[in-house]
């Protein structure tokens, strides 16, 4: 639509999308006053007693956002994120065991994409609850949780465009009773899971059995322990905040990370010269074996370029991130929009803006991140919308990047991976940008030289 009608396109009765990253600072401001639209209310879970469950990600209310975000923001800073590294290693160990056990000997073709998703979910389970969900152990969607999240996103996607219909169907007692009766409200399954995990943890914490002191294994405390402690130590924080925070981890922080891992692996595999270049960089960096440390890989230039390019190419959330134009209206890209208009950019579109990213913006080319100076790289980073922008930018992005920068070097250094049929890789954008069918074969590489950890 943007190719046909220009950089600002009216895509609904009251909704406008933009394609040029120049509009980002105007729409996604650092201050309050440009709130999220009703799009986000459709992503809130509903309970007949409490009404809509506001989470940091989907609340439209600036004050509520501040109340929810301020207490936990320090957990997500770049300085604090490495405290979660030990837990990621724990899950990498499990992935290694399963890959070696199942797929090496007979060169079996397997769904690497699905295993990356299992990995991302088991990492978030471990970071949040100190427990893997068991996806890697079983090689299956245990308890149907992955399917439930897919259903949640897929059923929400059309409703994000018609918020009143969401209200009529799901956000009232009658609609809710119907959904419960027929088991079609996917968010309930996730809420149920989160509720059980919280009760379990509160139980072990109150009778002194919670072993998650965070130091015995050299690992930081899990998120849930930290959330409960924060809530207990601050009377201003409502008790339901723990559920809201935990729900955000599960919904916002698992599939999204898995999706970026898949994008990066897929493109490395279909552009083998970039894979070779990355392999060379990793080999000459003398990394710890078998799990490189975050401090060793965090600033490797080509790895970083590949991760940024993955973030650019396939944003896991891919509809315009809608905001409501405040009183007085606003002008973006020379178009005046009156107050009350919903306006947003889709990261898929904005991240491919040729003026910003180059004529070959449709293609995978990590080199674009390295060809000019640091300032230019920063400018490109700020021109992407994958994590959103401004005051509502993704809180967990440093956690996600840590996971990705741990996983990719581990896979590439330890395995020779071949994609089987790139044509089988399929995409479906239902608000969440799903991928299916990354089939591969792997072999173990001869043991890489490096530091044994
Ligand atoms: C690495 C992959 C990830 C991607 C691509 C991603 C993407 C996003 C996007 C697009 C937004 C909101 C933008 C908007 O609506 O304007 C967001 C917000 C958020 N994300 Fe992430 N996310 C990722 C990982 C995570 C992780 C690992 C966590 C938690 C552990 C997390 C927690 C959150 C939270 C709490 C918010 C709400 C922030 C706010 O409104 O202030 N995300 N994320």
TrEMBL record:
GO molecular function: heme binding; iron ion binding; monooxygenase activity; oxidoreductase activity, acting on paired donors, with incorporation or reduction of molecular oxygen
Binding positions (heme): 394
Protein name: Cytochrome P450
InterPro entries assigned to the protein according to its UniProt record, in alphabetical order: Cyt_P450 (IPR001128), Cyt_P450_CS (IPR017972), Cyt_P450_E_grp-IV (IPR002403), Cyt_P450_sf (IPR036396), Cytochrome_P450_monoxygenase (IPR050121)
Homology family: Belongs to the cytochrome P450 family.
Domain of life, source organism: Eukaryota
PROSITE patterns linked: CYTOCHROME_P450 (PS00086)
SUPFAM superfamilies: Cytochrome P450 (SSF48264)
Keywords linked to the UniProt accession: Heme, Iron, Metal-binding, Monooxygenase, Oxidoreductase
Cofactor: heme
Pathway named in the protein's UniProt entry: Secondary metabolite biosynthesis
């Amino acid at each position: 639509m943007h190719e046909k009608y220009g950089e600002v396109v009216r895509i609904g009765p009251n909704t406008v999308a933009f394609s040029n990253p120049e509009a980002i600072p105007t729409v996604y401001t650092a201050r309050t006053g440009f709130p999220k639209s009703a799009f986000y209310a459709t992503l809130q879970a509903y309970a007949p007693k409490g009404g809509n469950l506001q989470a940091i990600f989907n609340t439209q209310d600036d004050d509520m956002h501040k109340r929810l975000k301020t207490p936990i923001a320090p957990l997500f800073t770049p300085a604090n994120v490495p405290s979660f590294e030990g837990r990621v290693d724990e899950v990498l160990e499990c992935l290694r065991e399963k890959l070696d056990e199942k797929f090496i000997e007979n060169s079996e073709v397997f769904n690497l994409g699905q295993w990356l998703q299992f990995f991302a979910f088991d990492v978030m389970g471990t970071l949040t609850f100190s427990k893997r969900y068991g996806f890697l152990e079983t090689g299956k969607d245990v308890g149907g949780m992955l399917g439930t999240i897919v259903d949640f996103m897929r059923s929400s996607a059309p409703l994000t465009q018609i918020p009143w219909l969401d209200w009529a169907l799901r956000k009232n007692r009658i609609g809710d009773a119907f959904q419960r009766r027929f088991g079609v409200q996917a968010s309930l399954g996730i809420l149920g899971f989160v509720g059980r995990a919280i009760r379990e943890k509160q139980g072990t914490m109150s009778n002194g059995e919670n072993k998650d002191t965070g130091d015995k294994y050299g690992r930081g405390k899990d998120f849930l322990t930290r959330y409960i402690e924060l809530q207990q130590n601050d009377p201003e924080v409502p008790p339901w905040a723990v559920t809201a925070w935990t729900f955000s981890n599960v919904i916002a922080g698992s599939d999204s990370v898995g999706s970026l891992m898949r994008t990066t692996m897929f493109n490395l595999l279909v552009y083998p010269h970039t894979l070779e270049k990355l392999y060379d960089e990793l080999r000459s960096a003398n990394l710890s074996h078998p799990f490189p440390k975050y401090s060793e890989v965090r600033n490797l230039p080509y790895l970083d370029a590949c991760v940024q390019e993955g973030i650019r190419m396939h944003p896991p959330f891919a509809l315009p991130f809608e905001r409501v134009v405040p009183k007085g209206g606003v002008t973006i890209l020379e178009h005046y929009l009156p107050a009350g208009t919903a306006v947003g950019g889709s990261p898929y579109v904005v991240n491919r803006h040729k003026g910003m990213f180059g004529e070959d913006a449709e293609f995978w080319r990590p080199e674009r991140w390295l060809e000019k100076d640091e300032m230019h790289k920063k400018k490109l980073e700020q021109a992407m919308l994958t994590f959103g922008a401004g005051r509502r930018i993704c809180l967990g992005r440093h956690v996600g990047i840590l996971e990705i920068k741990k996983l990719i070097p581990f896979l590439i250094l330890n395995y020779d991976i071949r994609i089987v049929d790139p044509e089988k890789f399929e995409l479906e954008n239902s608000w969440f940008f799903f991928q299916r069918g990354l089939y591969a074969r792997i072999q173990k590489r001869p043991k890489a030289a490096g530091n044994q950890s």
